[in-house]
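Blackboard transcription, Thursday session:
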Amino acid sequence: MSLPIAPTEAVVTRGLRKTFGPIVAVDDLDLTIGRGELFGLLGPNGSGKTTTIRMLCGLMEPTAGSATVLGYDIVREAEQVRRRIGYMSQRFGLYDDLTVRENIRFYATLYGLHGAGRRARVDELLGELDLAERARQLAGTLSGGWKQRLALACAIAHRPGMLFLDEPTAGVDPASRRLFWQRMHTLAAQGTTILVTTHYMDEAEQCGRLAFLSRGRLIALGTVSEILAQFHQPSVEDVFIELQRRDEGVLI
Amino acid sequence: MSGLWPMLWKELIQLRRDRLTLGIMLGIPAIQLVLFGYAIQTEVRHLPTVVLDESRTAESRRLVDVLRTSGNFDVVERVGSRAEMAARIQSGRANAGVVIPPDYLRRLKAGGPARVQVVVDAADPLASSAALSGAQLAGLARDRALAREAGAPPPAIEVRLRPWYNPGLRSAVFIVPGIIGVLLSITMVLITSVAIVRERERGTLEQLIVTPIGKTGLLLGKILPFLIIGYVQITVILILGWVLFRVPMLGSLPLLYLLSLAFIVASLALGLLMSTLVRSQVQAMQLSFLFLLPNILLSGFMFPRQAMPDFAQWIGLALPLTYFLTVLRGVLLKGVGLEYLWPEALALSAFAVGLVVLSVLRFRKTIE
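(Written on the board underneath:)
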């Protein structure tokens, strides 16, 4: 009998599929993401990005296929997965009537932090994300950029090995977006695997690898330079538009 | 159970900051109590009455006096004909008419019976029943008085009425304990179903269920803080009920508060179940009010369950409020304890445990 070893893959999906009645949201998705990767998931609205993330986080059960996150099965070992991941959606999931500190403290407690360790971690996060001055402010009175920082603080309070970010920068000003991506690189450099969806192509170009989804299917996968070479396009934005045109053209 | 304490901590902070909800939750019992307590007067008195006195004698006038002093009839007009009397009742100016025929005194002198007619607008049976029995009693009283004057022996049978537990037969004494139950069912169910749906609408429920929080901890942490609101409501009504309506508190208050726990938890769990059926806060409110109706009509809050057809009684048995009303009235008005109330205590506990288990089982840590 061999001892369980830490897999080198953070995410492995095999034939992952999700349907809502007659609608196929995710269609036989095969995807492998390595540990420590900063991985971008791109695609037009309704292409299955959010559904994919929700399945990987255990928020939705797949209709068919299987997947593991950090070596744990997303259906059978959902609680193991939950303990090790951080999740942030574009709705941020903050309590407007709790203060900045209370929000972080609450989520930190849910992930099992307590006592002096929790206090130290909350202070550390407040400092790291420049939230210390606003610690006593109600989250509901923060502007978009600050809410985003707070949501990130809540998502990484327990130092998760893997982060799922569903359009984390939607509706956030450019300065906050730039800061946010600097933090993504820092987290990735520290070994955190990050799966992020975005509609901003400048953000996509900062990812180590990209996957394009269209109508629930994976239609392109690779590093930024591989994808640019493969499609003979000058930028990721051009690839995006070309792929969308092609995919929809084929079906029409 | 993991996550119970952080949820309680968060909910209590939110509750403390939500002044509007707190105000409404405390204001509602006071308003409801005054509305129900004063408005629900099933004993209708002082009916506007017209008198058609064709006898025009001292004896007939005395009879009218007896009717008037019974408190059920206020003579607003003396009319000259039956047609006039009918017109007054038809128009609504009067709800009752008393007709004393011309031969009233002559028949009385001849040893009777002298006939008197009392016409009552009985379109509303509740309003008319008191008048009908009031007229009957007034006639009997006058009959006795005349017999006594004539030196007749006292009647062989005398019925003495003793209305236990509510000697004044006041509606408020009956209604106020019921208000505690009705108010708790509506506010507890509403407050939880809205609270869960609000977390879902704001996206915080999604954020909660990606954490390792346990289902039981999440749900109990969500509902238990509302116990405080429930207990404050009970206390407000008990105090106001005693101050404004002199509603007695004969039995053990600790027992009442203990049994209230089962009822409140059952109502909160029902709100949780409801939240799994609705999509928006508006729907949650509509469903809560839909639930209120059978509670008011079938639980025995206003109308006696004994008078209901079988199927309505069975529906009543499925409502926790039915049992809680028995407890409330039993403890407050009769001063009885568990020796008589154990079946209700058992039923309420079963509702509480069953509904909590059911709502935990139904709740899914997914967002589909």
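Lecturer's comment: The mean pLDDT of chain A is 91.
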